[in-house]
Amino acid sequence: MKLRGKRIFLRPPTPADFREYASLMKISKPAFREWLGGFKGRKQFNDYLQRCGRDDFYGFLIGRQEDGAIAGNMNLFNIVRLRVQFAIVGYFVGAPHVRQRHATEALQLMLRFAFRKLKLHRVEARIQPHNAASIALVKRAGFTREGYSRRLVKIGGQWRDHERWAVLVEDWRPLRRK
């Protein structure tokens, strides 16, 4: 399954993507160390591929339309059905691709997928409080800050606080195409 945007696309990862993805993680590590932690190579990538096969996880690589290069990833996970109908979105854009609006377009594609295809009611994002770029990204997509979770996720050996942001299907504002 491929989700197509104007400048980027989302597609599931394959084993053949390991080298390009690992290279992107390596060159991005100095810029994003406190948000990502360390990349553990093939084992971590293979674990990611396995999670992509589960019913509660949709993992996509962000690819550039112009050349197919991997710019990052976007994942929808912890999907809960029944009366809740919600998931968490997580994302990463590699250092060479920041500030090019790839994440903005990718998040819109993911929300369209979540709300229209999966029929979810709510999508949440968990963001470290000092990650201004990520907070700006979710605000543009219509997310609302709902709370603060102390020491929520262990990253790089340290428990990190996160803000909780969410968007409901009725609040989602698809960006207008220009």
Helix and strand composition category:
alpha+beta
Mean pLDDT: 92
Radius of gyration: 15 Å
Percent range of helical residues: 25-40%
Main sheet record: 8 strands, mixed
- Would you state the CATH class? Alpha Beta
Strand order of the largest sheet: 1-2-3-4-5-6-8-7
CATH topology: the name is Aminopeptidase
Instruction: Identify the quaternary structure here.
Output: single chain
- Into which percentage range does the β-strand content fall? 25-35%
The general outline is: globular
List the domain count as a whole number.
Answer: 1
Order of helices and strands: EEHHEEEHEHEE
Distance between the termini: 25 Å
Instruction: Give me the CATH superfamily.
Output: Gcn5-related N-acetyltransferase (GNAT)
Tally of extended strands? 8
Poorly predicted segments: none
Q: What's the architecture in CATH terms?
A: 3-Layer(aba) Sandwich
The total count of helices amounts to 4
